[in-house]
Amino acid sequence: MAKFQVVEKFVSINGEGQSAGALAVFIRLRGCNLACSYCDTRWACTDDAEAVEMTEGEIIDYVKSTGVTRVTLTGGEPLLAKSIDVLLQAFAQCSDLALEIETNGSISIAKYASMEHAPSFTLDYKLAGSGMEQYMDVSNFALLQPKDTVKFVCSSVDELDRVCEIVDQYRISEKCRVLISPVFGSIEPADMVDYLILHQRNDIRLQLQLHKFIWDPNKRGV
Ligand SMILES: C[S@@+](CC[C@H](N)C(=O)[O-])C[C@H]1O[C@@H](n2cnc3c(N)ncnc32)[C@H](O)[C@@H]1O
Ligand SMILES: Nc1nc2[nH]cc(C(=O)O)c2c(=O)[nH]1
Ligand code: SF4
Ligand SMILES: [Mg+2]
């Protein structure tokens, strides 16, 4: 049995990613190796953030108790957790649960992408505005499957040129979904749409963080 530091667990709709709008159970793990300028979950990233220690069995029991079948494992950076492979294996054995992992693009997904019943990944590529672009592990792009998503959170419309450069260089939209999302409140989404129209980017979708429109953007547990 392994132990995981869970800073938050709740049921909501998924506000982001490929299953946006659908019910999901969220498991948020403590700690992160990056410090994105815009991070909306900084409180979960420090090693001393308040957390409840749970085993993989307790996490799965909690998920099953909700009756919700989509699970989002997030953080912080979930792939940093010691023994994360144990938790992913436990989920892989539950054929009635669909696991999505939000990961920050700096950690290799190779070990997990090759698992039987592998989870789906929402792989962030951190752009210059995050201050973290130098940590991106671009070898992950070769491992993408149709069930995965690559996401670019943009601090300015100018960053969309870089998004297109990366999508084209690694042929990402031939492999999986590509999403762009504004840093909440810092760009007009309409300007992002204008960019997609102007550049005829049929392969890139805009996504807004739904939960921040439904609830107070700073509210936790939603
Ligand atoms: C808090 S992170 C946790 C998972 C992982 N560390 C990562 O960065 O992908 C979850 C998602 O929220 C996004 N995010 C964080 N702060 C944001 C903000 N202010 N506006 C829009 N998206 C944000 C991240 O880019 C990431 O896609
Ligand atoms: N409702 C809701 N959906 C989300 N999708 C990804 C989230 C995250 O923080 O990783 C998130 C979140 O914090 N809340
Ligand atoms: S990697 Fe994710 S959790 Fe870590 S600082 Fe960046 S957005 Fe926040
Ligand atoms: Mg969030």
From TrEMBL:
CDD domains: Radical_SAM
Residues the entry annotates as binding Mg(2+): 41
Pfam families listed in its UniProt record: Radical_SAM
Amino acids binding [4Fe-4S] cluster: 32, 36, 39
EC number: 4.3.99.3
Gene Ontology molecular functions: 4 iron, 4 sulfur cluster binding; carbon-nitrogen lyase activity; magnesium ion binding; S-adenosyl-L-methionine binding
Biological processes annotated in GO: tRNA queuosine(34) biosynthetic process
UniProt KW keywords: 4Fe-4S, Iron, Iron-sulfur, Lyase, Magnesium, Metal-binding, Queuosine biosynthesis, S-adenosyl-L-methionine
Binding note for cofactor: Binds 1 [4Fe-4S] cluster. The cluster is coordinated with 3 cysteines and an exchangeable S-adenosyl-L-methionine.
Domain of life: Bacteria
Class of the enzyme per the UniProt entry, highest EC level: lyase
Residues holding substrate: 13-15, 28, 74
Domain Radical SAM core: from-to ranges: 19-217
Substrates-to-products reaction catalysed: 6-carboxy-5,6,7,8-tetrahydropterin + H(+) = 7-carboxy-7-carbaguanine + NH4(+)
Pathway(s) it belongs to: Purine metabolism; 7-cyano-7-deazaguanine biosynthesis
Subunit structure: Homodimer.
Protein name: 7-carboxy-7-deazaguanine synthase
Organism: Agathobacter ruminis
Gene: queE
